[in-house]
Design goal:
The protein has a two-stranded parallel sheet with strand order 1-2. The protein is mostly helical. It is built from 11 helices and 2 strands. The termini are far apart. The protein is 77% helix and 1% strand.
Length: 324
């Protein structure tokens, strides 16, 4: 496997290449921290200041590494990056982390420093060359220093009240952007498709036809809800976040809500499929009530009564129409 690998083994790198790798890694991490700061600055200025400070720390270490390289090997730094080295720690794409909320970004930043420190410590322990061993040990100490600096920056910019305020704002944004549209979609998909699915089921007693109707109703409702949510509010004035994110949340959950009780009709036996579908409907409605209670602070029994009553009425309508 090693013969076919396009990546270098860390143990095969020269001391110059190790320094070059450290330089490129510091450059990348500084860019990541500045990207986090830029994305958080409007809503979470205190945390953005923390990441600005961490980026400055990375710049300082990069400058020290460049000075070390120039003194030992000259001004020309080899082009080697972490993705060129097998086993070297990787960074997740920024866009994957930015969408997961402020606490996830903080956690990722802490993991970045710990990953780098652990890697350099392990690499130093495997090295037989004293100079390389010392270099890797110094890098591990630098990464540990980054963690201390980050903690100091948090204490400077993030007091308890500020952090609590930012956490509350992040939670509110998560609810407005993801939970609220997703919940609306789940309710629409679960409840609005009951009538056509069960009307078709009792009118035809053909499970395949019922499944096709349920699939069409679910997908159609999901597309409709997704576009409606995305087009209804650009999020600029309401602060509800990206219309694309809200549209996806609403559309996907609408489709899921309808497919839940359409999929049982893949079972060939009509009464078995219908029994499973009714059980799935019961689970869906209670899940909606739980989400309302968990995220929207709606009293559980009130939410359950509203959702179950509404679902029962729609279900009854579908059965009556299909039986007639």
């Amino acid at each position: 496997m090693r013969f076919f690998s396009q990546r270098r083994q860390f143990r095969d790198l020269s001391e110059q290449e190790v320094i070059a790798l450290a330089i490129s890694s510091e450059e990348d991490d500084a860019r990541i921290y500045r990207s986090y700061a830029a994305s958080l600055r409007d809503e979470f200025p205190a945390t953005a200041s923390v990441f600005d400070g961490m980026a400055v720390e990375e710049d300082d270490h990069r400058a020290r590494l460049i000075a070390l390289h120039e003194s030992r090997f000259g001004p020309t730094i080899p082009l080697i990056r972490r993705e060129h080295v097998a086993g070297f720690y990787a960074r997740r794409p920024i866009w994957l982390i930015q969408n997961l909320g402020i606490e996830r970004i903080r956690t990722e930043a802490a993991a970045m420093e710990r990953d780098a420190e652990r890697f350099y410590i392990a690499a130093a322990a495997r090295s037989q060359d004293s100079a390389t061993r010392k270099l890797l040990g110094d890098l591990a100490a630098a990464e540990a220093g980054h963690q201390t600096a980050a903690h100091s920056l948090e204490q400077t910019h993030l007091d308890d009240d500020t952090r609590a305020s930012e956490d509350d704002m992040s939670k509110r944004q998560f609810i407005l952007t993801w939970v609220q549209p997703g919940l609306a979609g789940l309710m629409d998909g679960s409840v609005s498709t009951l009538a056509p699915i069960f009307a078709t089921a009792f009118a035809t007693q053909d499970t395949w036809t019922t499944f096709l109707v349920g699939l069409a109703a679910s997908v159609g409702a999901g597309i409709s809800m997704g576009f409606t949510e995305a087009a209804s509010d650009d999020g600029e004035l309401s602060g509800r976040g990206s219309p694309i994110k809200r549209g996806f949340a609403s559309g996907i959950m609408t489709t899921v809500g309808g497919l839940g009780h359409a999929l049982p009709y893949l079972i060939a036996d009509f009464w078995t499929a219908t029994t499973v579908a009714i059980l799935v409907v019961f689970i869906e409605l209670w899940a909606i009530a739980w989400i309302q209670n968990r995220f929207m602070q709606t009293p559980f029994f009130r939410a359950a009564f509203q959702v179950v009553l509404g679902g029962a009425l729609v279900f009854a309508a579908g059965v009556l129409i299909g039986s007639g």
